[in-house]
Amino acid sequence: xxxxxxxxxxxxxxxxxxxxxxxxxxxxxxxxxxxxxxxxxxxxxxxxxxxxxxxxxxxxxxxxxxxxxxxxxxxxxxxxxxxxxxxxxxxxxxxxxxxxxxxxxxxxxxxxxxxxxxxxxxxxxxxxxxxxxxxxxxxxxxxxxxxxxxxxxxxxxxxxxxxxxxxxxxxxxxxxxxxxxxxxxxxxxxxxxxxxxxxxxxxxxxxxxxxxxxxxxxxxxxxxxxxxxxxxxxxxxxxxxxxxxxxxxxxxxxxxxxxxxxxxxxxxxxxxxxxxxxxxxxxxxxxxxx
Length: 290
Description:
With 290 residues, the protein is α+β, with helices and mostly antiparallel strands. It folds into two domains: 3-85, Phosphorylase Kinase, domain 1 (2-Layer Sandwich); 90-289, Alpha-Beta Complex (Aminoglycoside 3'-phosphotransferase, Chain: A, domain 2), CATH 3.90.1200.10. The chain is 49% helix and 14% strand. The protein has nine helices and ten strands. The chain has helices spanning 3-8, 55-67, 100-120, 130-143, 152-166, 203-214, 218-229, 235-262, 269-289, and strands at 18-21, 29-35, 38-44, 74-78, 81-85, 90-91, 172-174, 183-185, 190-192, 199-201. The chain has a five-stranded antiparallel sheet with strand order 1-2-3-5-4. The chain has a three-stranded antiparallel sheet with strand order 6-8-9, covered by helices on one side. Strands 7-10 form a two-stranded antiparallel ribbon. α5 (152-166) runs antiparallel to α8. One of its GO terms (biological process) is phosphatidylethanolamine biosynthetic process. GO terms for molecular function: ethanolamine kinase activity. InterPro entries: Kinase-like_dom_sf.
């Protein structure tokens, strides 16, 4: 059965449907389905243990995010399938975050996630601790004979230093995958989508991920942190934040290294690994220089 046939066979539609691929995803297969004039997004994806993606967790967070007005409504879920409302929107790109008003709006959105989702979520939910993820990736890459295996020990030495620098944390419900393309600009608001990696974490990870994935300048980072905190960050906070930003970029590197081995999606993971290695190296050099 093709992915399109799987979508068409869902016991959800009122009649024949129109199915179109939704491009941009590098983990799942996504489609826009038009049924009796209404449009939906259908997301196909199984658990991904090597990335610690559990679909029951994604469903739970997607449902609560919709209740909080942060994400489109979840209309249907079954093993391997999630169906949400389609919202007319455009995915943000890294350059969009360099616009001061867009950055303010996105920081406000992230703050709502950390406040509202933390209060609303009940029942089982995962925790996302990036250094645990990195240690798991390192083990996987070694066992799988990755072409990057010789590089992994040095990367993990760096991770250990970063974990020590982060120190004690506050705990909130985080999105944990703040790539710009997971933020959608609708007609009069922003939406946040893709809760695969959501779970309890430090706010530093979402903030560092947002900055690192968007290539924010030092001045824009200070503005982002000041907006989030409601005050200027002190030196200690900046040091801890910088360590987590580096860890976020390292996670993207090792996520891609693992995906080079495991993913069957048509995407240049090797190129993505190289791109993120360069960004991580630059961020780490900057952090060490401060």
